[in-house]
Write a structure and sequence with these properties.
The complex is a heterodimer of chains A (about 190) and B (about 240). Chain A is mainly alpha-helical and about 190 residues long. Chain A has eight helices and no strands. In chain A, helix 2 packs across helix 3 (about 45-65), helix 2 packs across helix 4 (about 75-90) and helix 6 crosses helix 8. The termini of chain A are far apart. The chains are: A mainly alpha (about 190), B alpha+beta (about 240).
C-alpha cells in the first residue's frame, strides 16, 4: 500500500512538473540528481563538467517531461537522457575516437575477482580511452546491446565489440597493476 | 561476452553511487528553466501575432481582389460614339453623337445602384457611380442622341433606353425626356464656361510672332548698316 502511494506521489509530482510547477521540479531534481550526477561522472572525468551536463540534461528532461508516458521507470527515463547528453557532450568536445577495427577476441570468463571501492573502480574506468570507456559503460553499466551502441554512437557493431574487447583487456591490466600496487609488489 | 563477476560488481557499485551536486546547481537549473519558459511564451506570443498578421494580410488581399475583380459593367465610348452595353450586337448598341467633338466618353455603370455616369475626360478614366438621388451625371452638356433609341444592355441589369423611356430589367424606368432635361441642366461640375484652347495653334502663333519680330529687327539692322556703309562710300568718293 505504501509503495502504491509513493508511485502515485511520483506520478502527481511529474504531472505538476509538466505544468512547470517549480516546486515539483525541485523535488524531482532533489530526488534524482545525486544518482544522475554519478551517471554523468562515469562518462566525464571532470566533476564540474559532469555537473554542467547533468543540469543541461535535467533541463531537457523537464522540457520533454510531457512525453513521459508512465509506462516504464521514471528513473530509467531520466538516466537515458543523462547518458545521451553525456555522449553528445563528448562528441561536441571531439574527445571520442573510434578505431574502425572489427577484430575482437572473446574474453575468458576467469577474470580477476577482487573487491574494489567505487573510487578505485572509477579511477580504473577514467584511465580508459574515451572510446573504450563509452562502450564499456554503455554495455556493462547501462546494459545496452552492441547493435544499440552501434546505433547510438554511429559506429559499426563490430567496432563496438572490438572497443569493448580492448576496454576489458586494458581494464584487467590496470586492475592487475592496481592490485600489485596495493599489495606492494610493484 | 556476458559481463563477468568483476563487471557485475562494477555495475552494482556504480549504480549505487550517489554524488551530491553543488548547492548552486539547482539555482542554475532554475535560471535555465526560467529562460526557456520565457522564450517559449515569447515564441507563442510571436506566433499569435504572426497569425494575426497573416490573417490581416489575407483579408487585405481578398478585399483587394474583390475590389479589382468584382464584375464591373463598363462601357467605353469611342470618339464621337457612345456605346452603352458590353455586347456589340448591332441591335443592342446605340450611338450618341457629341456635338463638341468629345474625344472619349466613358460610361461606368454599377449594378448595385443602377447608376450611369458619363465622363467627358479624354483619358480613359473609369469612375464608379455614387449612390445619389439622381443617378445620372452628365458632365458635357451638349450630348444629343443621334437615333431615337438607346439600348443599354449589360449582363446584370438590362437597361433599355428609348426615345420615350429607358427600361431597366429590374423594373426601373427612366424617362428619356427627363434624361435629356438632366443633360440640358448645367451640372455643378460645369459651372465654369468651357473654353477650348488649342495649345498647338497657340504655340505656333507665338512662334510666328517671335519670328516676325526677329525678322523685322534683323531687316532694320541690315538696312541701317547698309545705309551707313553707303554714306561712308559716298563721302570717300567725294573726297
Amino acid at each position: 500500500m505504501k509503495v502504491i502511494n509513493l508511485h502515485i506521489a511520483e506520478k502527481e509530482l511529474i504531472e505538476q512538473a509538466v505544468e512547470s510547477n517549480r516546486h515539483a521540479q525541485h523535488q524531482i531534481y532533489s530526488k534524482f540528481s545525486p544518482k544522475m550526477l554519478g551517471v554523468c561522472r562515469q562518462y566525464i572525468k571532470d566533476m564540474h563538467l559532469a555537473e554542467d551536463v547533468m543540469i543541461t540534461a535535467f533541463m531537457k528532461a523537464f522540457i520533454s517531461l510531457k512525453n513521459f508516458k508512465h509506462e516504464g521507470s521514471f528513473e530509467g527515463w531520466i538516466r537515458r537522457i543523462m547518458v545521451n547528453e553525456c555522449i553528445s557532450f563528448l562528441r561536441v568536445q571531439k574527445k571520442v575516437k573510434f578505431l574502425e577495427e572489427e577484430i575482437y577476441t572473446e574474453e575468458s570468463s576467469n577474470s580477476i575477482e577482487s573487491q574494489f571501492s567505487v573510487d578505485d573502480i572509477q579511477f580504473l574506468i577514467d584511465n580508459l580511452p574515451d572510446g573504450y570507456k563509452m562502450v564499456f559503460n554503455l554495455y556493462v553499466i547501462e546494459g545496452y546491446k552492441h547493435h544499440e551502441i552501434a546505433e547510438l554512437l554511429g559506429i559499426k557493431e563490430g567496432t563496438s565489440k572490438s572497443q569493448l574487447s580492448h576496454a576489458r583487456k586494458m581494464l584487467q591490466n590496470n586492475i592487475s597493476k592496481l592490485k600489485n600496487y596495493t599489495n606492494g609488489t610493484e | 561476452m556476458e559481463p563477468n563477476k568483476l563487471e557485475t560488481q562494477i555495475k552494482e557499485q556504480l549504480n549505487a553511487r550517489e554524488i551530491q551536486p553543488s548547492s548552486l546547481a539547482w539555482d542554475r537549473l532554475d535560471a535555465m528553466l526560467t529562460v526557456v519558459e520565457e522564450k517559449k511564451n515569447n515564441r507563442f506570443h510571436f506566433l499569435n501575432n504572426r497569425n494575426i498578421g497573416i490573417a490581416a494580410s489575407i483579408m487585405i488581399i481578398v478585399s483587394l481582389g474583390f475590389f479589382y475583380f468584382s464584375p464591373k459593367d463598363v462601357a467605353s465610348i469611342q470618339e464621337n460614339r457612345v456605346v452603352i452595353g458590353q455586347k456589340n450586337d448591332s441591335n443592342n448598341k446605340e450611338v450618341i453623337t457629341n456635338k463638341q467633338d468629345l474625344q472619349k466618353i466613358q460610361i461606368a455603370e454599377t449594378t448595385r445602384h443602377n447608376a450611369v455616369t458619363l465622363i467627358s475626360k479624354p483619358n480613359s478614366i473609369i469612375q464608379k457611380a455614387q449612390p445619389t438621388i439622381n443617378p445620372i451625371i452628365i458632365q458635357d452638356v451638349d450630348i444629343e442622341f443621334q437615333s431615337n433609341e438607346v439600348i443599354a444592355q449589360n449582363q446584370f441589369p438590362k437597361v433599355i433606353m428609348s426615345s420615350q423611356e429607358i427600361k431597366v430589367s429590374n423594373s426601373i424606368k427612366v424617362n428619356a425626356i427627363d434624361l435629356l432635361a438632366a443633360v440640358d441642366k448645367p451640372s455643378k461640375l460645369n459651372t465654369s464656361p468651357r473654353v477650348i484652347v488649342d495649345t498647338k495653334s497657340l504655340l505656333s502663333q507665338v512662334d510666328a510672332e517671335l519670328d516676325q519680330t526677329f525678322k523685322e529687327k534683323a531687316l532694320k539692322k541690315i538696312t541701317k548698316n547698309y545705309k551707313e556703309i553707303k554714306v561712308a562710300f559716298q563721302t570717300r568718293n567725294q573726297e
